[in-house]
Write a structure and sequence with these properties.
Number of strands: 22
Strand order of the largest sheet: 1-6-5-4-7-3-2-8-9
Structural class: alpha+beta
Radius of gyration: 36 Å
Bound molecules: adenosine-5'-diphosphate, magnesium ion
CATH superfamily of the largest domain: Histidine kinase-like ATPase, C-terminal domain
Length: about 625
């Protein structure tokens, strides 16, 4: 063996590696297997170019753990390295890579493979690394290189290998002995190497085959054989042209990637090679309207090598709810996250993904509207979130963002505005859209609005409040009002007024009666001459205050509004027969007034506890008279 010294200013490669990559120790396997894949693909490229490489043969990469010897071996049948090449590629290039790395990026992880440092990640888990390699080019004996990560290494001839290719042998250090467990290596291979383009074998596995009997009356026999355990799918779905994949392929890929999930609603195959390279499949999962933001569902690959499942910044925020795979050699993995946000390449990718998603949604809406409406429950949340957070998407999404009414009919916003315009335009020429946040709680109000032939939208999700604000912002001639924001007559203010059937004097009496009966601050009590068909007493919650309170509760800000009491108005309909009757009720007038008020509270689900008991006792009392 001959001795050499690595020519580099840095004393020792180990501290660098350990300092910057310790947290990501396990990537050593990804790096070494990737190198084996690269070597195999280079060999094929050479062969395709007509270079003399001999017989290619079986190029399956072997990963082997020898617990007794304390080693992990990664063995490939790629192009191999000569003595000179080991010196050149392993020592010189790698170490200049280390210098470059140190100078440029001090605060980052995950860049190792991009600085010609991938090989040296081996030293995160090994205190000695051996290379045994034989180049496809020469008949010279194999070369052996041994290093403990210091500046000195040994290199020389060996007869440990007589076929083309490379073995990387890691002598695992004491504190990394968990990597000598088969299940750990299997886990890492599955995580990082599952879709690499060259078969990777890790041990063997049993395969059982059923052999049908040749003669009638015989039982079928089962034969178990041992076969190589291949970790990876070398041609994953996203790398194949979309036309080669069936729906069943997309579904089975999804189930393989997300075994715990329900089947997805639909998917988008991404495939672009200019101005950047990107392939992938994005799935719309069933979200079931639970606002579960799991931000680790899209997996990022670089040439089929798993990189990360933290795709913030690469995928637009609102699409983080999607599942699937993105594969791109053009995403700069060697830079910090804050930098990623402003990277022009990443911005382009971001825009492309947004556009593709909008295209797909628009196509689905146009060609399969019924189906799209059925899926709205599951996709609406994501789309509205996109509309609220991404202007570009919002522009596109106008065409397919739906609102649904209490009759379960769906409209696009412009369809809806057309639909309600004739009957729901108020005297200021504003279109009033009515909505309910809870059809059961607000039932009486919904019915009252419907009796006026008004349409009522369902806006029960927290995001709907933001969505309505967004619409009001964009369409200044549109405003939204919850069904209990006013008495039915005033929900949509029109020019028509109803004459009062009571005289001013009588109105004064009614006012005093209620003021005494309900014990509420005078400013909350209003007398109005409404339609005789409207309720005698109604509790309303003015839109503006209620909204401010809700918004502040949602956003956690503006405590001032949050602490305001639940403000509501008490509206007495002086045109209702029950109110006229009150004037002649003599001794029971106050009790009846109180009862009418309690009924209104009941309708709003606001009558509770002792007040409810009082109400029941009072009613029973009145009925007994
Ligand atoms: P990179 O893969 O980014 O070039 P690495 O540090 O991972 O950086 O590897 C350095 C170089 O060593 C490779 O470019 C390649 O020339 C050589 N090399 C590493 N592993 C192998 C292998 N298994 N077979 C052939 N050459 C290899
Ligand atoms: Mg590499």
């Amino acid at each position: 063996m001959q001795k050499g010294t690595i020519s580099v200013q840095t004393e020792n490669i180990l501290p660098i590696i350990k300092k910057y990559l310790y947290s990501d120790q396990e990537i050593f396997l990804r790096e070494l297997v990737s190198n084996a894949v690269d070597a195999t693909q280079k060999l094929r490229t050479l062969a395709n170019r007509g270079e003399e490489v001999g017989e290619i043969g079986d190029t399956t990469i072997q990963v082997m753990v020898n617990k007794d010897a304390g080693t992990i071996t990664i063995s490939d049948r790629g192009l191999g390295m000569s003595h000179e090449e080991v010196e050149k590629y392993i020592t010189q290039v790698a170490f200049s890579g280390a210098k470059e790395f140190l100078e440029k990026y001090k605060d980052t992880t995950n860049m190792i493979g991009h600085f010609g440092l991938g090989f040296y990640s081996a030293f995160m888990v090994a205190d000695k690394v051996e290379i045994v390699s034989k180049s496809y080019k020469t008949d010279a004996p194999a070369v052996q290189w041994v290093s403990d990560g210091g500046v000195e290494y040994e290199i020389g001839e060996t007869d440990a290998r007589n076929e083309r290719g490379t073995d990387i042998i890691l002598h695992i250090s004491k504190d990394a002995d968990m990597y000598l467990e088969d299940h750990k290596i299997e886990e890492l291979l599955t995580k990082y190497c599952r879709f690499l383009p060259v078969p990777i074998q890790f041990g063997e596995t049993n395969q059982t085959e059923t052999i049908e009997p040749t003669e009638e009356g015989q039982e079928p026999t089962e034969v178990t054989t041992t076969v190589p355990h291949i970790i990876n799918d070398t041609r994953p779905l996203w790398m194949r042209p979309p036309s080669d994949n069936t729906d069943a392929d997309y579904l089975s890929f999804y189930r393989q990637m997300y075994p715990m999930g329900e089947d997805p609603l639909f998917w988008i195959h991404l495939n672009v090679d200019y101005p950047f390279n990107l392939t992938g499949v994005l799935y719309f999962p069933k979200i079931n309207n639970k606002f579960e933001v799991k931000k680790d569902r899209i997996h990022l690959y670089c040439n089929q090598v798993f990189v990360t499942d933290h795709v913030e910044n690469i995928v637009p925020e609102f699409l983080m709810l999607l599942h699937g795979v993105i594969d791109s050699p053009d995403i700069p993995l060697n830079v910090s996250r804050s930098y990623l946000q402003s990277d022009p390449e990443v911005k382009k990718i971001n825009k492309y993904i947004t556009r593709k998603v909008a295209d797909k949604l628009e196509e689905l809406f146009k060609t399969q509207r019924e189906d799209f409406e059925q899926k709205w429950q599951d996709i609406g949340l994501l789309i509205k979130y996109g509309v609220l957070t991404d202007d570009k998407f919002a522009e596109r999404a106008d065409k397919f963002t739906l609102v649904g009414n209490t009759n379960d009919k769906y409209f696009t916003l412009s369809e809806y505005l057309e639909h309600v315009k004739p009957n729901q335009t108020d005297k200021n020429n504003k279109i009033t859209c009515l909505y309910t946040t809870d059809e059961i709680e607000q039932h009486a109000y919904v019915v009252a609005a419907q009796n006026k032939d008004y349409d009522v939208l369902k806006m029960g999700d927290p995001i709907d409040a933001h969505y309505m604000q967004h619409v009001e912002h964009k369409h200044t001639d549109v405003h939204f009002k919850r069904v209990d924001a006013d008495t039915p007559d005033l929900l949509i203010e029109k020019d028509e007024t109803t004459d009062s059937v009571l005289s001013d004097d009588e109105r004064g009496k009614v006012h005093d009666l209620f003021a005494a009966a309900i014990n509420a601050p005078a400013q909350y009590l209003e007398l109005k001459a409404l339609s005789p068909n409207d309720a005698p007493v109604t509790i309303t919650k003015p839109e503006f205050m209620r909204r401010m309170k809700e918004m502040s509760r949602l956003s956690g800000g503006m405590d001032w509004y949050k602490d305001m009491p639940d403000s509501h108005q008490i509206v007495v309909n002086t045109n209702h027969a029950a109110i006229a009757k009150l004037l002649h009720a003599n001794g029971d007038a106050q009790q009846i007034a109180k009862n009418l008020y309690d009924l209104a509270l009941l309708q709003q689900n606001m009558l509770k506890g002792a007040d409810l008991t009082d109400f029941i006792n009072r009613t029973v009392g009145l009925m007994g008279k």
